[in-house]
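HUMAN: Ready with one sample?

ASSISTANT:
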Amino acid sequence: MEALTHREEGILGKKEKEQKKEEPLKEEKREIVVNNPNIRVLLMTDGYVNIVHPSVSVSAGGGLIIAFGEESQEAAAGETIAFAPDDPRFQSGNIRISAKDGGEITLNSIKRSCGTPSYAGTLELRTTAEGIVIINELPLETYLCKVVPSEMPPSYELEALKAQAVCARSYAYRQMAGFGYPEYEAHVNDSTDYQVYGNSQAQESTNQAVMETQGQVARYQGQIVTTYYYSTSCGKTAGLEAWGTQPDEGNQYLQSVEVRDENGDYEAELPWYRWEAKIPAGTLSNLISQNTGVNIGALQNVEITKTGAGGVALQICARGDIGTVTVDTENKIRRALGGSGYEIVKQDGAIAASSSLLPSAFFTIQREGDTFVISGGGFGHGIGMSQNGANEMAKKGKNYIDILTLFFHDVEIKAGDS
């Protein structure tokens, strides 16, 4: 989730999870047992660019146990051990690394925002023709302790952090119903493709949020559901049609809602609640042609031809002097109008550089001379829980159950199989 990081705006950061999928898929009617199972997380390279590492270097304060085949070796406290793809230990199969004292393993060969990351549980190394794949296997609740601070600032209100913990846990359980990387038996990776993990260190506040909601998930009609979340709402959330997904009996928990109380929109004073971009016609012409692969020539007009619940744009039509292109769904619309070359002015006057995606699909657009003016609200895909909305609700005394049941229609927050 690059132009905005979660440290800058309080949330997901990177190019946002919605870049990877226009979901949700139909929720499977498949019961998932909730306890504290192990999740297998594929750890990506620096910048989350690749799943294969050219080499791996590890150490641990209490020393390491390195197991391969029927053999095992030990490394002394603080000793660094390196692995290349042709390491002879791979001849016995996968290599599994654990800390002698049960603590964390430092992965010296990658960098994250927190610096050099360390991981609880086991690191499993698999050699491939391209390099080494690293899978971190660890208990789900431990995993969440480094997901929550990576996805929401630890300085946020505890009740908002607890709502985030339940969302992250529910999302993880849905992903654990299958393997995102079946060839490596990994459920997820550690990037915005799924949930960011280990980009920030565990913090006392986020650990508390995980502990105080331990095992709790969101259920709709008895089934654990995928609880999507994003940065900031415009006062309303989007319905599933924003992703081109047809409503069915399993996904009715994701509906457009108003993010407000009797005093008005919770996020009305936040910078991204409203924003505006003034884009030269030539710049927008080039961006639309590049982003859609259709040469429209000089842009004459952009019209929102279909809207959904809450006013989200579902379809736009861009007409140029050479051609016309129609774009459907929020992600593709935001991508069509995104790219470098213009600025976005937030409602507090702060300026952000444009990025690969327009901040949200809640906008209007009109031409003023040689400039197109896009006036919008919110930041992110708009479906599910607004993280800043959750934080503002918590500031007004709402608890995490209040928060989750506002954003997710008719869900129950339950632990275990209760």
